[in-house]
Amino acid sequence: MLWSEPPDEPPEELRRAEAMLRRARTVLTVSVLLAMCILGMWP
Fold this sequence. Notes:
- This is Integral membrane protein.
- Keywords: Membrane, Transmembrane, Transmembrane helix.
- By secondary structure, this protein is an all-alpha fold.
- The protein has one helix at about 10-40.
């Protein structure tokens, strides 16, 4: 790797987007599990 090449790390925007997607996936997973538990207890 030459010193003039840009670093391999992703740009700040991409890192923020990936973090947002991880949070959204976590919230969605918890929401689905909670909904399944509530609907499972429904008579």
